[in-house]
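anyone seen this seq b4? input:
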Amino acid sequence: MCGFGKANKPPMRRNDNVYALSTCVIYLKRLFLMRKCDYCEKASQKVNKRKKVRSAYNPVNRYRQQANLQMVRLPSGEKIKLCTNCRNLVVKGRLATAKH
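predicted toks r here
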């Protein structure tokens, strides 16, 4: 046994902890803050799931519905996230590609 523990990994240094924390923050930003359309700012919604029991509906649990976001490359070369409604308008030429 080499003395590093069960997984035979070297002990973490302070820089490794800082790196792990920064990657965690970046991941959380991408996960929660950036899930909205860059044009209309459509984001996720909390909705209730219902289950029909005999003649009534029982609320079962709440869950989050995410917006259908797509990465779109603009004619200027910039990549932005758009919901499918805004994306279709951009493709058809009915929506200005500049952010309001």
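The chain has a mean pLDDT of 77. The radius of gyration is 22 Å. kinda curious what u guys think
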